[in-house]
Amino acid sequence: MFSIVLYQPEIPPNTGAIMRLAANTGCLLHLIEPLGFEMSDTRLKRAGMDYRERVITQVHESLEAWIESEEPQRVFAFSPLGATWHSSLDYAPGDALLFGPESTGLPEEVTSALWVDESARIPMLPGVRSLNLANAVAIVVYEAWSHHRYMGAV
To answer: Is 38 exposed, middle or buried (CB count within 10 Å of its CB: 0-12, 13-18, 19+)?
Structure first.
């Protein structure tokens, strides 16, 4: 369906919850190093529970290595500074959905990179810090999937 790409994720339970989301939606999961945890972390395993074996997860040493390996056709980067709403994108199967680390989000040099097709944001009220990463990924994945009438779902 889609590829979820986590750039330098820091919090194991968030990544575990995103693994569970990927398993339930048919998404691939790509993790860009450095990771803020070991893949064997018990908090990651607990959050991902038995879903960890049901999702294809690949770890890449850098964004450049991910691009070279996966050759994504389209990349949507999500940031509070994005130019458009996440719901206004025209999602297609195979799109890569790129999210930044919990503490800082995606750096500007990533959101403005030539290989990023669009930088988008999830609407929030002013004066609040941000959404939890796992929640933000879930919002975007389900929005993208809804554009395809939840293809493959039961």
So the answer is: exposed
